[in-house]
Amino acid sequence: MKNQKKEKAPAFDWIIHFVTDYACQLCGNNDLHFKPNLCNFHTHGMRELYNHPEFQLVLNIDFNIAGYILNKLGLMVKEGRRFKAGEAVSGIGICDLTLFEATDNSKPVLRVILPDPSYRLPDDENCEHPYNLQYLSTEDLML
Q: Could you give the residue ranges of the DSSP H alpha helices within the chain?
């Protein structure tokens, strides 16, 4: 058997919180109740480590998929990429992601906007629910 070199997994210097209908101790949010199919996945560490806005994703999708998207963006920042609102990002999934300027706890974040199954964004009047809610303020995601 040949010596096989194991590929190292990337090191993550940040964390991802998945906040839905409970408290986030790091953010200071308590007693949260989100509208159906919405939540608040967000990073902690981009600002402090890389002087870059945190990332946020508000669709209540599979945790592994959301984590993959946010970690992939984080790794791109760690490698020196700088993102801005309005930018389309390719190479993470089967379709481009769009970044939207939002705030979370009065701090600017770059919200990851996912297109609906027909690849429509929330500014398209035919965008499907709940994808059409992604431009809501963080406060308006909740009941």
A: 46-50, 63-78
pTM of the model: 0.86
Q: Which residue has the tokens 């999934």?
A: 93
CA distance 56 to 60: 12
The pLDDT value recorded for residue 89 is 97
Q: For residue range 89-129, list pLDDT tens digits in order.
A: 999 988 999 999 999 989 999 999 999 999 999 999 999 99
Instruction: Output 9-13 pairs: Cβ under 8 A, ≥24 positions apart.
Output: 10/71, 10/75, 12/71, 12/74, 12/75, 13/45, 13/49, 13/78
**Which one, of 107, 127, 105, 129, lies nearest residue 24 by Cα?**
105
Domain spans of the chain? Answer: 15-141
